[in-house]
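Q: How would the structure tokens look for this protein?
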Amino acid sequence: MYVLIVVAVIAVIVVFLYNGLVKSRQMAEEAWSGIDVQLKRRADLIPNLIETVKGYASHEKSTLEEVVELRNKAQGVPTGDVEGRAAAEGMLSQALGRVFALAEAYPDLKANENFAELQQSLETLETEIQMSRRYYNGAVRDLNTKVESVPTNFIANAFGFSKKPYFEITNESDRAVPQVKF
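A: Here is the predicted structure in token form.
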């Protein structure tokens, strides 16, 4: 009789821990989906931005081609490759920064209403990507903590749960503190 009670209690604990792991994994996958949607929205805006800039800065062809190439590279990274996607998107963000720097050299471009709207849309998307990234990294942190903590690590190992990578900035220059000079 006592053996059945102990087995039942252990079974309930295993089910509870397993369901917690499943919930954490689903939260991380849903969070990644949110990042993916924001990155897709940004990628969809880039061709319009490039076409607008081309009209004003046609001799900046190499910069514009680099943005298109990096966009295509980022879009080509497999959906589940978080680290690869983070690296590709980081390079794309740097290239987009160079495109926006071009606007400073071309006052007509800077004054173009379409360019200003695209720039504002991309800035809004960057903020949304940052929020999505924080949410994803929080969900991954929770999952990874469960996968590594006792007693859930025993259940995680038995049922094939594994840690997920964080969506991090891979370019050290993006982490650097900006230099302010007067």
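DSSP finds seven helices and no strands in the chain.

The longest helix spans residues 2-56.

Upvote if useful.
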